[in-house]
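Researcher: Next sequence.
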Amino acid sequence: MDKGDTALYAFRKYGDTVIRAAYAVCGSYHEAEDITQEVFLKLHSSGQSFSGDDHLKAWLLRAAINRAKNYKKSFRVSRTDFADEEAENVFAAEDSHEAKAIQEAIKRLPERYSSVIFLYYYEGYNAREIGEILGISENTASSRLTRGRKKLKAELEKEGYHE
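Model: Next structure:
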């Protein structure tokens, strides 16, 4: 499969996953779209080869998360306070009020926690795999997941949600 076919195949198979990952980190649907486009353009222009679909998916997620982190650190974001007014719900499968509240609470978490929670709960990765994707140890991924859950629980309890 040539690199053009790889990028098209990857986009068709993992495009929604990549945009959800970018959105989970940056919190802006429009920026997540841009990040997704950048990731697939990078894949298309790189000579990267992959050992399988899992390797390809991990590469795409890591690239999207890293670009979303860079976006959040950018001067424009750090110096402005704007709402993503036209944002669509990229987690369309979950329409309940509670699911939306959880998604909003996840977006408000620090990135190091929101990314591991997204990868664990929405993408089904375990701590070892999350560590590999994010370039951290399995123990660090596990610790961040535990701390992120505690912060998420506290955030939801502030909003009136209880177990």
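Model: The CA atoms of residues 131 and 137 lie 5 Å apart. The radius of gyration is 16 Å.
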